[in-house]
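Worked Example 4.2. Consider the chain below.
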Amino acid sequence: MHIAKTRRKITVRKLNVILIALVGWPLLTIAAGAQDTSAWCPEAPMTRLEACETNVGTVIIKSYALIGTVSVKGATVSVRCKEDTDTSTGRKESGIAVVITESDRPAETMLIDYDDLDSLLNAIDYLSKIDWSVTSLNGFDAVYTTTDGLRIAAFGSKRLGEIQFALRSVRLKFAPVRLSQTELAEFRNLIQQAKTKLESIRKEK
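Applying the procedure from the previous section yields the following structure tokens:
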């Protein structure tokens, strides 16, 4: 009798193990599939320019023109006009590319759609005029970030007694490039020139 009971217990345990395996296997498969999906799924395009440039199965014409550069303490910040054309549909997207280049790291390129340029220009105007009236505390950070991750910041410390400015890409996580107020104004002028050029191109079509 004891042997029979023992065998029945072993049989029940085997059945439990089999049931757990049968129930658990689909869950593991689903979890693994979810992990694989996230690992292989590319990031969605952040801007219309990027969405156009990442189209596949069609010829994309990428047109550009350098507007100018600002030299900033070992780095250069360039502004380019851009116009992309999907030849299969005739669809066009325009805007600018801001490229930050330093000798010890890869170039950072951020795309800004034409429709977002006014917002960017207004943000730079605000940041360039910011002063200590924005806070009664000892320091502040004021930031503006474009859709594609170009972050412009003004930051100050009353202990140091100055307000500084910086550019960086939030995607690549590199250290920011510091600008003086004059350099920030030069950068703003390049963006305005690019916007004016794009407007003239649009009027011609």
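The chain has a mean pLDDT of 83. Residues 2-40 form the longest helix (39 residues). Compare this with Example 4.1 before moving on.
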